[in-house]
């Protein structure tokens, strides 16, 4: 992260003391050289899992950042791909790095995921690594927005990694990060909402059902299984249904 191509400690500190939007504007030129970018292995695994569910005509990358998810969509969608993000800096990088030769048309839109500026125009919505920027109380509105921009039968897909157990160092690292962020937001304005432990799968599945989605969980076999046999990573695939038809299949 602190190599010649990535941000230095001072730049990260300035970002952390900014708003989420301003922080990502500042980080955008170096974002793809940080661990915050979704790894290629995750992107490839999701693309492989979604391919049998297509074909798709029009896709949306929700909170697209520098366009890694939109690039996945260009291989899944036949007509159009749209990336939406509220950081002008991240969108600027995305415009330059995602330029497919042929294939679907690609468009970039500056907007808030909690108030999407679209009608029901998409068959597939994906999102990668963005949900830590939403508080649990915001999920119903967020999922309602996604439901509203999908055509009937359209799908909302995103990967979920199994959280580390308390016996693992990663558990305490994430807990420490979230604790620091809560203290920072209690003492400093504007807030920077980024929490790793607020997006709990059980609660998310319930909120998706209440928003009118029928939900399936697809293991991502490339990441193996934990000691208890459960997948290390899953793809949540939520299909737009009538509000009373939400169900969960594991």
UniProtKB/TrEMBL annotation:
Keyword S-adenosyl-L-methionine: yes
A GO MF term: methyltransferase activity
InterPro entries in the cross-refs: Methyltransf_25, SAM-dependent_MTases_sf
Record-level GO BP terms: methylation
Record domain Methyltransferase: where: 60-154
CDD domains documented for this protein: AdoMet_MTases
Record Pfam families: Methyltransf_25
UniProt keyword list: Methyltransferase, S-adenosyl-L-methionine, Transferase
Highest taxon listed in the record's lineage: Bacteria
Name this polypeptide is given: SAM-dependent methyltransferase
């Amino acid at each position: 992260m602190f190599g010649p191509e990535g941000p230095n400690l001072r730049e990260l500190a300035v970002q952390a003391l900014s708003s989420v939007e301003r922080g990502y504007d500042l980080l955008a030129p170096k974002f793809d050289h940080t661990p915050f970018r979704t790894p290629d292995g995750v992107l490839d695994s999701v693309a492989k899992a979604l391919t049998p569910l297509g074909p798709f005509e029009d896709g949306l990358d929700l909170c697209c950042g520098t366009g890694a998810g939109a690039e996945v969509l260009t291989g899944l969608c036949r007509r159009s791909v749209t990336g939406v993000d509220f950081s002008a800096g991240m969108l600027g990088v995305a415009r330059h790095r995602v330029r497919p030769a042929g294939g679907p048309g690609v468009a970039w839109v500056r907007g808030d995921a909690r108030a999407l500026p679209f009608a029901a125009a998409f068959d597939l919505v994906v999102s990668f690594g963005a949900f830590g920027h939403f508080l649990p109380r915001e999920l119903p509105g967020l999922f309602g927005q996604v439901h509203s921009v999908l055509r009937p039968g359209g799908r909302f897909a995103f990967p979920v990694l199994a959280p580390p157990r308390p016996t693992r160092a990663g558990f305490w690292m994430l807990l420490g990060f979230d604790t620091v962020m809560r203290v920072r937001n209690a003492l400093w304005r504007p807030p920077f909402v980024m929490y790793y432990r607020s997006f709990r799968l059980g609660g998310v599945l319930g909120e998706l059902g209440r928003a009118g989605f029928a939900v399936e969980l697809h293991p991502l076999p490339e990441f193996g299984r934990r000691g208890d046999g459960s997948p290390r990573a899953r793809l949540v695939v939520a299909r737009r249904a009538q509000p009373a038809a939400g169900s969960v299949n594991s």
